[in-house]
Structures are given as structure tokens and as C-alpha cells.
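Quick one, C-alpha cells below. Sequence please?
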């Protein structure tokens, strides 16, 4: 499952959550610090580990 980074606009704290795609699409993300729903998604690095050798 993907990990998403968020910034709470209410308390200005960043946090990350591991969500399924359907959970992410619902968009009902709540800040774990202050319980605000006023959050924005932040950009994060993405990497994949594969077993194929080059």
C-alpha cells in the first residue's frame, strides 16, 4: 500500500499515512495531532524495489 504525506493546515504539523487507493480517494483524512480535517497532501519521493537485475 502507498504511503502518503500530509500537512495539517490547522496545527502546521506534517504526518504520513499508509492508505489503500480507495481510502485515499475518499479523502477523509484526519490529522492525528489535532483531529482537524483541514489537511493537504504533500509531495513525497517514490521508489520501487524489484528483483530484476540490469
Amino acid at each position: 500500500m502507498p504511503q502518503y504525506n500530509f500537512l495539517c493546515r490547522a496545527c502546521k504539523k506534517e504526518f504520513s499515512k499508509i492508505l489503500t487507493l480507495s481510502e485515499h480517494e475518499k479523502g477523509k483524512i484526519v490529522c492525528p495531532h489535532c483531529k482537524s480535517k483541514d489537511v493537504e497532501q504533500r509531495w513525497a519521493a517514490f521508489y520501487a524495489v524489484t528483483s530484476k537485475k540490469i
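The chain has a mean pLDDT of 87. DSSP finds one helix and three strands in the chain.
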